[in-house]
Amino acid sequence: EVKARLRPFGFFFEKSLTDLIKGIRAHKDVESQLKFLQNAINECRSEVKSSDMDVKTMAVLKLSYLEMYGFDMSWANFHVLEVMSSSKFQQKRVGYLAASQCFRNDEDVLMLTTNLLKKDLNSNKSVETGVAISGISNVVTRELAADVVDDLIKMLNHSKPYIRKKAVLAMYKIFLKYPEALRTHLNRITDKLDDDDESVVTATVTVICELSKKTPKILVNLAPLFYQLLQNSNNNWMLIRILKLFSSLTAVEPRLKHKLLNPVLELMSKTKASSLVFECVNCLVMGDMIDETDYEVARLCLEELVEFFQQNDSNLRYVGLLAFLKIGKINPKFIASYSEYILQFIEDEDVTIREKSLGIVQGVVDDENCFTVVKKLMLQLVPEESSTSNENDSFPKLFAKKTVLSEHYKHEIVYKILEISSMDNYTNIPSFEWYLAVISDLIDLSIVNNLQTGDQLGEQLRDIAVRVPSVRKEVVGTAIKIINNKDVLGKLPAALKYTIWLAGEYSEYIKNGDIFIQTILSNESRLELAPYDLLELYIPALVKIYSNYVNKDPTYWDLDKSDNISSLTNRLINFFEKLSNSKHFEVQERSVEFLEFFKVILEAIEQHDLNASEPPLLLTDALPSLFNAWELNPISLGSQQKLADPDFDLDTPINEEIFEQYLKSDDDDTDLEEFEEELYEDLGYVEHEEQKNEQERNPVVDELKKKEREERLKDDPYYLSSDN
C-alpha cells in the first residue's frame, strides 16, 4: 500500500526493463546470470498479478524480453490479454507485442481475444486499429481468420492509407490460414491496385506476388493490369515485385514470354538501379524467356552483369555471379567470352564467390587456359606456410594470412579440376603426362588437407589407362609412385584400390617386379590392417605382377634366377598364409586359393632340373593363362544398351513333369502353407515340435483347461459329451 501511494509522486520500487537489461549484462558468468534471470522471472510472476496496470504492463514487457532467452511465458497469457484490453495505447501496444510471442498455439486464449480484436479493429483511433491489424497477422489461426476476415476487409476502405496498407498485408496471412477467403475477397484486394496512395498499391503488388508463388493460375487474368504497371510505374520496389510476379505467371501461361521480353529488356537498359537490373535478368531466366539460341538476349544480360563484377561490393559481385550462373546453365557458350571474370572469381577474397564460380568455370575452360585454371585451383589447396623465425632475428618472419577454406570447398576444387580436365574426352589438357602429374600432386594435397578424394582420383587414373593405351606405361609409373607413398595407405586408402589394380592389370610395364613386390610386402604389418575391399584387390594384383616378372624371359633359367624366384615365392606364401585366416570371406577365399597354387609352384621350382635352360611349365604356361586370355578394352557410352536380347525361351517348361504337377496343384487349390506343413512333416520337423511341446506341457494346467472347457460346453445343445 505504501508503494502504491508513493507511485504517483514518481517513486517506483519495481525494476524496469532497463534495470533488467543492465542486471543481465552485469552478471558475466553463466551461473550467476542464470540465477539472476530466475529471480527476475519470479519477480515478474508476482508483479503480473498486481492490480496496478502500470506494474502489470512492465512485468509483461520484461517477460517478452526474457522470452528471447528461451523462458516460457505462456503461463501469463491471460495477464497479457488484460494488458491488451487496456484503454491506454502504450499499454495496449505492449500487450499486442507479448501476444505475438505467446498466443500462437493457445486456442483458448484466442477465443477470448476475438471480441477484443474486433473492437480494436473498429476503433476510432487509427493507432489502435493499426496495432490490432499487426496483432492479427502474427497470431491468426484458421478459426480466428474466419471470424475477423469481414472486419479486416472493411479496413481496405479506411480513410487513412496507413490502415489500408496494413490491412492489405494482413490479408495475405488470412489467405494462408483460411483459403476460402481467397475465392470471395481476392477482387477486393486487386481493387487496391487503383488506390490513390502508392504505398497501398505497392503493398497490394507484394501480396499478389507472394500469392503467385502458391497459386499462380488464379492470377493469370491480372496479367494485363500488371503489364500496365510495369510500363508506367517509377517505383523500383514495385517493379521488382511485378517482375517476380511475372516469373511465376509465365510458368503457367507461356504466351506471356513473347509479350514481356521487349519491355523487360527496355527496363533493364534504362534503369541504373542494380537491384532492378538483377531482377530483370532473373525474370528473363526464370521465366524461360531465353533459350539456347538467344545469343543476343544473353549478350545484353551479360553486359549488364559485367558492371556488377567491377564493383568493390562483394554482395553485388555475388548476386551478379548468381545471374551469370543461371545464364551459363542455359547454354555454356553464352559465357565463353567472359572467362577473364570467372578466372578472377576463383581467387576472390570472398569464399562464397569462389564456391559459386566453381559452378560455371567449366563453361569458360578451353585448351588455351586449362593449364592456368588448374594451377589457380591447385594453389588454393597448398597449405599455409607456418611462420618461422631466425634465432638471430629480433622479430619473427610473418606471412600474409590466406583465406580460410572449408573442407567442402576443398573437395569441390578437386572434383572441379578432374571435371574440367576430363570433359570432352580430355580435349582441354596440354598432355596426358601433365595431367598425370596433376593427379599425383592432388593425391599429395589430399593427404595434407585430409580430403577423402581417393575414389575420384583413382578412377581417373583407371579411365586414362583403359582408354589411352599409349600412356599406360606413364599411368603405371604414377600408380607405383602412389603405392610406394606410405602416407596413402593410412590417409587415402581408397586411391590404392585403383592403383594396385592398375599395377596388376598392366604389370608388363613394371621394370623390376621383384623389387616392387618386396617393397609392398615390406609394409606387410600395416597392409594386413587395411580395409578388406583393398586386400581383395592386392592379392590378385600381386600374383599378376609375379607372373609377369617370372616370365620376362621365358627361355632363360639358371641357379640365380631359381633362387630369386624361390625367395619371392616363399615371401608371397607367407603373406597369403597370414591372410588365409582373415574374417572376411573374399580375402580368405582368394588367399587360400593362391596359397595352395604357390605351394605347387614352389614345389615345381625345387624339383626342376638345375641344368635346365627353361623355367618350369607351371610358370611359363599355367600361371600366365590365368590372366592373359582377354584384354580389357574400353567401350563407348551406351554400347551395352545396343546389345540384342539373348534368344531365351521363357515360356517352354524346362521339366514337363514338374510343370504338370504344379498345374495340378493349382487346380486343387493347394495352399502354399499346407504344402510347407507337409514338407516339414516329411522331414520330421513337426514330430520334433510335438515332442518338444509334450515335454513342456504342465499336467496341472492341462487339467484346469479341460475342466473350463467342459463347464463352458455343458449347456451347449449342439455339443455331445463323451458320456452320452
UniProtKB/TrEMBL annotation:
The keyword RNA-binding does not apply. InterPro entries: AP3_complex_dsu, ARM-like, ARM-type_fold, Clathrin/coatomer_adapt-like_N. It comes from Cyberlindnera jadinii (strain ATCC 18201 / CBS 1600 / BCRC 20928 / JCM 3617 / NBRC 0987 / NRRL Y-1542). It comes from the Eukaryota. It is a peripheral membrane protein. Residues 685-717 have a biased composition (Basic and acidic residues). This is AP-3 complex subunit delta. Residues 39-599 form the Clathrin/coatomer adaptor adaptin-like N-terminal domain.
